[in-house]
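Progress against Task 2.4 (sequence-to-structure conversion) is shown through the following example record, which the project officer requested during the mid-term review.
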Amino acid sequence: MPDHQRRASQPLKANPTSLASGNNMSESVDWDSLTFSLTPTDTMYITTIRADEPWMPGQLQPYGDIPMSPAAGVLNYGQGLFEGMKAYTTSKGRIVCFRPEENARRMQRGADRLKMPPVPESIFVDAVEQVVNANRHWVPPTGKGALYIRPLLMGSGPVLGVAPAPSYTFLIYVTPVGPYFKGGMTAIDLLISDHHHRAAPGGSGGVKAIGNYAPGMKPSKEAKALGFAEVIYLDAETHTCIEEVGAANFFCIKDGTLYTPELTGTILPGITRDSIIQMARHLGHDVVEGKVEATFAMEADEAFCCGTAAVISPIGSITLGETKSTYGDGQPGPITTKLYDALTGVQNETAEDTFGWIHPLPSL
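C-alpha cells generated for the chain above:
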C-alpha cells in the first residue's frame, strides 16, 4: 500500500481535543480571503461495512486519500451519494450546525433509491459532531464564512456487472469556505436551457446521487461562456416548467406569494428550500408548490434560487431564447432580501430560532 494511503487508513491515536489546540495550518488562514473552494483540513471520519452488516460508529483519522479497488461500485456504476451542510461560529460564540438531521434523512432516502444500506440518523449526526469538533479550529470567525461539511456514502467494494456493491463506506470531510456573497447579495443572470434536462420522471433526480451532477457541467459551462451565471432546467416532459437552477432550487414571487416547483421526484428536496417555505409562511406569505411555467416565472416580481452554498441567491434576469425578463432594477427584491436576512439570522443566532433548526456542537 502506498505511504499516503497507509497514513490515511490508520485511525488517530490522539484525542480530537488535542488536535484543536495549536500546531495546525488554520492559524495562518486569511479568513477574509476565503472562497467557496477546497482547503484540506486535519481530520475526517470514516466507517466501512459489508452489505449484510449493520452500520457501526466509525473513527476519526487524518484527512487524506483512501484505498479503493478499481472495480469499486462507485467508480464503475456511480453507486454513491453526497450531502452538503455547514457549521457556523454564531454571534453568541457557539459553533452550530443547521438541521443536520434533515441531511441524514435525505441521505437515507437516497440510499434506498440506489440500493445502499442507509446510515442511521444517530450515527450520521454523531459523525458530523465528531468531525466538526476535531476541526473546530477551522471554523471561520463569525461573519467570515463557515465550515462546509461533506458526507459521502458509496459502494466501495468491487463488483463486475451492474449490481449493488458488496461493501460500503460512509465518510465525512470538512473545509472552511468564505461567504458566498462578499460585500452583499448580488443578483445573477440566468439562461433557460431548451435542449438539456437535469432529470426525468422515474429517474434519480429526487436524490443527491453523484451521477446527477457531471451531466450539468457542460450546459453550465456553455451558459457561463455566454455571460450567464448558471442554467435553468425545464421539465423533460413538456419542456415548459422550471425545475432547478443548476444544482439549486428555484422560487419566484408574484404579488407577495412564493411559487416553487413541486417535489415530484425530478428535483432535489432541498433543506434550504424547505426552510424558506417554512420561514416565508411564518412571515405571513403564501407559498404555492406546483408547476411553475417558465412564462409565468418570467413575469414574476422577484425570483431567487437557494441552496447550502449561498442560502439565497437573487435572480436579476432570466433569458429564454430571444426573450429576457429583468426583475425590478436587477437588484435583490424586498421579499428575497427579507427571507435571506431572516434565514441567516437564525443560522448566525442574531434572530430567535423558533423552528428548532440550530444544532449546537456538544462541548469538548
